[in-house]
Description:
The protein is of the alpha/beta class. The chain has helices at residues 39-45, 93-96, 104-113, 159-162, 168-180, 195-207, 219-228, 241-248, 263-271, 295-300, 315-327, 346-355; strands at residues 2-6, 14-17, 19-20, 27-36, 55-56, 61-68, 80-83, 123-125, 128-132, 142-146, 150-152, 187-191, 211-216, 232-235, 253-258, 273-281, 304-307, 337-342, 360-364.
Amino acid sequence: MRAAVFRTPGVAVEVTDVELAPPKAGEVEVTIAAAGVCHSDLHVIRGEWQVPTPVILGHEGSGIVTAVGPTVSGLAEGDHVVLSWVPACGTCRYCLLGRPSQCQVAAQVTAPNGVLYDGTSRLSVAGETAYHYLAVSSYAERVVVPQSGAIKVREDAPLDVIALVGCAVATGVGAVQNTAKVERGSTVAVIGCGGVGLSCIQGARLAGASQIVAVDIMVEKLDLARRFGATETLDASAGPVVQALKDRVPEGLDYVFDAIGKIETTEQAIAALGLGGAAVVVGLPPTGKTAKFEPLALAEADQRILGSNYGSVNPAIDIPRLVDLFMDGQIDLQSMVSARRPLEEARQALDDLASGHALRQLLMSAAAPSTSPTEVRS
């Protein structure tokens, strides 16, 4: 098959021929319909996150099950699925506590080592072992994933668009609904209006927030944020962000979501809070970076700093629910797609993402099944 291979930080990915072994026990093969291009992949390319190489990048995607390994239950050939980059084991402490997004096997085995549950890879390039990225590797024509990493969804949903649910939408909407539990009537700001930030805005709208301030330096993204539910926008390049937010909401905000993950944006999120407010770190910074805040001020104001990994979702429940919300016209996915490109243009897509102008680009493989859109209720 064809896949985008990354070898060395600072060197572009190469789309080349890759060997994919068949699924083993508890695994399924999925033919990819579409793969979303995400900033987490840029962290790897820039050398900000360490992963084994060579690695097939991509962790957001959708497709159709084309083979199942022994012992697989609940999935069959022909099923439509959205891929989850936290393939919950179902038996570790956190899975048993109902927190599968914190699965210890995903955190300690699959993600850092580039392997599947049994500690081995199904990928190779010219006879050399290649590694899975977050147990997905969706920049490819086909993938083999643990069965819990392939979430069955309704078959009338357009496969290409719902790829976004696997990362950006689950992360953003989940951060609002699951991590922060935003209440109706709350005041909210979202710093960063990329795919995750726009999903945070949609989550805040669904939660019934009374004021949603979208913050970005790109005017075109701010214009789009209003379509997704922002009640007002703030150009971060026009001056100090914290003061501008306090001018809008003098008593401070109830919730501020950092959907970028830079140190300065995290510090802005904390500084803009009102009494009892919560800053939610959704965007992921480079490894080892630290932010500053004043603990006394945080304690006196009864404020919180929350980390949100994968929107604190339960993938098996939340991913089909988010697809349903899309099909019912309650969330917008179509407007998040800034481009559809062939898999062979993976390098250019990543370059465009790094420029800051692209929203969510979708890589479409030559092996992609039909993704003809289905009418969405509005």
